[in-house]
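2024-03-11 09:14:02 DEBUG pipeline.ingest accepted 1 chain
2024-03-11 09:14:02 DEBUG pipeline.ingest length=299
2024-03-11 09:14:03 DEBUG pipeline.predict start
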Amino acid sequence: MAKRTISVPMGDKVFRIVSYVICIVFALACLYPLLLVLAVSFSEEYYVGLYGYRLIPYEFSLDTYRYIFRTSGLDFLRSFGVSVGVLCAGTLTSLLVTVPLAYVLSLKSIKYRNALSFYCYFTTIFSAGLVPWYITCVRIYNLSDTFLALFLPYAVSVFFLFVLRSSFAQLPDEIVEAAKIDGAGEMAILFRIAIPLTVTPIITVGFLYALQYWNDWYLTLMFINDRTLYPLQFRLYSILTNTEGLSAAQAQSAAGYMQVPTETVKMATTVLTITPILFLYPFVQRYFVQGITIGAVKG
């Protein structure tokens, strides 16, 4: 017996083809700047200044990366370790604070949850300012030149808090009530029901926290004077600043003929900054798929 084939209407075929074309064009538009930065970072500074940016380098060279590692040496590896430590400790701390607080704010049985929500929301509109914030962190919490200063001031994001609160508020009341009838307390409901059913937004918020800590250099500028505590972002920022200053000084001196890799250093520092976080995307995507299946509620 011959198998029946379901014919697809021509309109659906055209729509599918157009959708594929749009997705491919959008993907190439997003990929082009990344490939351009990568190509320039492996180019000779002389040819970049002469011909501009190209996807295919005129002459492949590792001189820029040698320059970065030669000028920073072991400090670069130490800064990389500091950044990884900040990312792990900061993300874990933020989730440990944000997730329980968001769950509490989502409970209708909490008497003053609206007042607590307004208190959190009020901080996004009005703040005491930079000087009181700095005095509080340095003189009261003694965060100057400490590892905690690199992530503790960013421990809670009110925006991420409200995102998770909305996710917890959408949980079916029947499941929570059934758990309470079986004798489960709030902690058991949080860790055995609420978190598994909202794992996708929690993973998303955790990844956004990780991006925040990985890309941050402002806390280092404000609180850190010890060079051994410099994270990768601030170390690369220092290298780039020193390179631009050296290039300007050489341009006004007799040594102006020496070529300092200013443009290629900018691109190389960008590559070194974004490469580790790019490897995190596939793992996060895998957890997204897993979270969707775990968080499904059967009717």
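2024-03-11 09:14:41 DEBUG pipeline.report The first helix runs from residue 10 to 41.
2024-03-11 09:14:41 DEBUG pipeline.predict end
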